[in-house]
Every structure is written in structure tokens, then in C-alpha cells.
Amino acid sequence: MPNPLAVLRRSRSGSRGLTRNPFEAGPTRRFSLKRMSPGLLITLLSVLTVLSIVLFLTIDLRGNLSYALTRRGIRVGAMLVVAVAVGLSTLMFQTVTSNRILTPSIMGFDALYILIQTALVFALGSSTLLTASPSLKFAVEVGLMVVFSALLYRWLFTGGNSSLHLMLLVGIVIGTLFRGFSSLLQRLMEPSEYIVLQDLFFASFNQVDPVLLGISAVIVLVILAIVWRLRKSFDVLALGRETAINLGVDHQRTVTLVLVLCSVLVAVSTALVGPVTFFGLLVVSLAYQMVRKFSHAALIPITCLLGAITLIGGQLVLERVFGFATALSVIIEFAGGLLFLYLLLKGSLK
Predict the structure, then answer these.
(1) Which domains does the chain have, with CATH numbers?
(2) pTM (predicted TM-score)
């Protein structure tokens, strides 16, 4: 026989639920992107990316439509390539280093790019640099960066004292050395040469060679396909070196492959448009905030889509709202630098 008091409580609670005052405070569920399924989130970001591209290509379109669409299409293609390359390289680098603050720029890639540009202007002059073949210049820059990273990884991972932390320390030291040499050469050159050189220190999507864009797009797509095949291995690598080895992953081989792929992506992106130091950190941090489970099957597309929205949407707002008040790369670097300081002060080093 049921307890009469229990029946009475249930009936009262049911009646209160049916006749509850609509102005009475009650439990509410806050909207959060983390509550969305990865598939729905990727679909939403894909729609926003397509919308950003369409608006960028069509807003205030006048004059020769064929010429205008071609120029805008090249810029959109460059931003897509850079978004995928930088976001993907940062995500992979943070996975293998188990650290949410580090980026490939810590290895001195940006500093090496600045040193290459400074050395070329100092030795040959700005006129030679500006009139040089874009394909030759692109090949030299990418080749030097990839060779630099390959030699560094080979020395660190094939020796008896191979250590990822040692690699990071060497990268910081080498980056500081490159910046020191660049600063010395910049102080010795003519002011007019330095003015031309200074424009190369910030990423620019306005003067991208279509041939180089096509080559860069093919390289990035090939690496993206390789990374997608390794997505499950990234989930295991994120658990740590010992756990990954116990689960059957060839840690040294996989990490070396990932670092080489990161170096190629950063080299291609930097040689194509210039350095973007904190862009990858900004995009990957947002991607981690949007997903509940840190599965790379979701993180990879979300990171790429967020990078595309940030670059294309940011450039669209900068041009149509603020009227080219400043370069997009300056704003991204400023926001990324603030995020870096926040993460550092928050103590998110792992």
C-alpha cells in the first residue's frame, strides 16, 4: 500500500509544476556551443564560412566584374590557404608538445623569414628583391625554412639525448639569434631600404601571386589529407608519450613526421603572405573552447573553419566598416598577443 504522505507530496509537486507562476525563478539552461554536437557545429561554421566568402566577393562589386572577382578570389584563396596551414600546424604542434601555449613560431620560423628578407635587402638592395622572380623567391624561402627545421629535428631526434623540451629550448635560442642578426643588419642599412623592408614584416593578402597560390594550395591540401588519416594517432599522442607508446604508436617516428609537416605548412604560409605569429594560437584556443571532447576528427575541421572565418570575416569588416584603417594582421597579432598573456598568467601550461 503506497504511503499517503508520499502520494500527497507528488501530487503537490505535480500541481506546482503545472500551475507555476511564469514570473517565478526556475532552473534555466544556458546556450553553449559545447552543448552542440560536433557535426552540427561544423555545419554551422561551414555556413558562416561560405557566407563570409560570398559577402567578401560580392559586396560593393562594381566596374569590370570579371577582373574584380578574379582579384577578390585570389585574396580569398590566399586567406583560406593561410587559415588551414597556420591553424593546422598549430593544432598538431600543440598536440605533440602537450602544451596549449606553444606555436610553431617558437621554433624561430618567423625570425628566420625576417632574417632572410633582411639579408636579401642588405646584400642585393630593395630593388633587386622587389623585381626578383616570385617563384624563385618563394622556393628559396620555403627551402631554407624546411632545411632548417629538418636539420634541427634530425639532430634532436636521432641522437641519444633526444628530447622535445630540448628542441623547444634550442628553437627559442635560435629564434633569438636570428632576431639579433636581423636587428644588426637593419641598423646598418639605409633608411630607404629599411622602409621597403618593413612592409614585408607583416602579413599581406593584397599582392599574392596566383601561381604561388596554386602551388601552396596543392601542398596544403596534400598535408591536410595526411593529417586527416592520422587523426586517431593524434588522439593517442595527446594522452602523453608513455601512454602513446603503450597503445602501440611509434612515438618518435610520428612526432618527427608531424613536426616536419608543421615546418612545411608554416614555411609555405610565411613565404606566401608573411609571418602571422599569434593567429594559430588564437584560432586553436577558440576551437578547444567550442568542443566538448578533444577529438581531432572534430578539432581539425573546426580549426580550419574558424581560421577562414577569422581572416575573411575580419578582412571584410576591416574594409567595409573601418575603411582600411589598419592591416588585419596587426589586429590579429594584437588579439593573439593578449590571449597569449592571458593563457600564460592563467597558468595553462601543461
Answers:
(1) 65-346 (1.10.3470.10)
(2) 0.78
